[in-house]
Amino acid sequence: MKSYKMNEDYKNIETLDDLENELRSKLSFVHDFSNELLTLIEKAIDPFEDDGYVYGINSATIIGLYTKLYKHFKLFLRAFNDKEYDTTVLLTRPIYEAFVLMKYLILKGEDSQTHYRLVSYRRRYKNFKELESIEGIGQVMIDKFKYAMNIDGFTMTDFECEDQKKKGRKWELDGKNFSEIHKEVEVSNTYSYLYGMFSEVLHSGWGDIRQLHLTYCEGGYYIPKMDFYISSDNRMIAPIFSIMIESSEQFLLWAERGDEIENFAQHKRINNLIIQYIFKNYESNPERYLYH
User: Fold this and answer.
1) Mind listing the pLDDT tens digit for each residue in 101-116?
2) How far apart are CA 64 and CA 116, in angstroms?
C-alpha cells in the first residue's frame, strides 16, 4: 500500500495567529496544501503501488463519482493557481453536485444506485424512440444506446416502466429533485449559497453577467469586460477543500477503510483555521470584499 508522510509543519499551526504567520511567511502555503490534499485523494482512490481495485456495477457508481471529484478538483487547482476565477466558478457547482450525489447514493444503497443509472438514460431513451422511426440516420447513436443498456443490465422494459410512472417524478432519482436529495445529506443553508448562487454561472443569470462580464461605470453605464477576472482568493478554495475532505471521509467509510481517514485529519484541521481566517477578514475589513 502507498505510504503517506504527513507534513510535520502542520503540527506547529495550532491557532489562527499561527496560520496567519504561516500565510505571510510562506506565499506558497495554500498551493502546497492543495497539492498535498490532491495526493491524499489520489492515494485513497488507488492505494496500491502495483495492484488495483476492481468494482462491481453498484460500487463503480460510488467510485466513479469520487473519481470525478478528484479530477475536477485537479482542474480547479490548476485554474486557481493560474488565478482563472471564471474557470474556478464554473467548476464549483459540478464539484458540489457530484459530492451531494455521492453522499446520497452511499446513504441510500444499491436500489438508489441502480435507479441513478437508469434515470441517466432519460435523454438517450427519448432520442432512441425518435431515431427508431427514422430510416438510415443515427444508427451509430442507436447502437451506442443498446451497447450501454446491455452492459448496465437494463432492458427496454425498464425504461418503458420508468416512462409510464403515474406517481412521483419519473426520470428523477428516487422521484426527487436535487433540492430534495440535498436535504437528506446536507445542511439546508448550503443549497442556496453553494448550489443556487452558482446556477447563475451555468444559466447566464444577470448576477454572473454583471460581475464577470461587464464593468460598471458611474452614471448607470456598463462596458464589456473582455479580460478574464483574475483572482485566487481563498474564499473560493476553502469550501472546495471542505468538500474534498468530507467526500474522502465518506468514501473511505463506505469502502471499509476507515482507518485511513486519519490521513486527512491535519488537512481538515488546517482548513477549519483557513475558514476562520476568512470570516475574521470579513468581520474586521468588510470593505475588502465589497467590490471583489
Assistant:
1) 999 999 999 999 999 9
2) 13
Burial 35-64 (b: 16+ CB within 10 A, else e): ebbbebbebbbebeeeeeeeeeebeebbbe
Q: Cα–Cα distance between 174 and 270 in angstroms, integer?
A: 37
Q: CB neighbours (10 Å) of residue 244?
A: 26
Q: What mean pLDDT is predicted for residues 253-277?
A: 95
Give the separation between CA 99 and CA 69, rounded to whole angstroms: 7
- 106 membership: H or E segment, kind and range: helix 85-108
- In the chain, what is the greatest distance between 2 CA atoms, to the nearest angstrom? 71
Cβ atoms of residues 104 and 185 within 8 Å: yes
Q: What is the pTM of this model?
A: 0.89
pLDDT for the residue 166: 85
Residue 130: pLDDT over 90: no
Q: At what angle do helices 234-254 and 29-45 cross, to 10 degrees?
A: 20
Residue 281: closest CA among 233, 244, 240:
233
Residues 6+ apart with CB under 8 A from 256: none
For the ranges 177-181, 186-190, 269-273, the lowest mean pLDDT is seen at 186-190
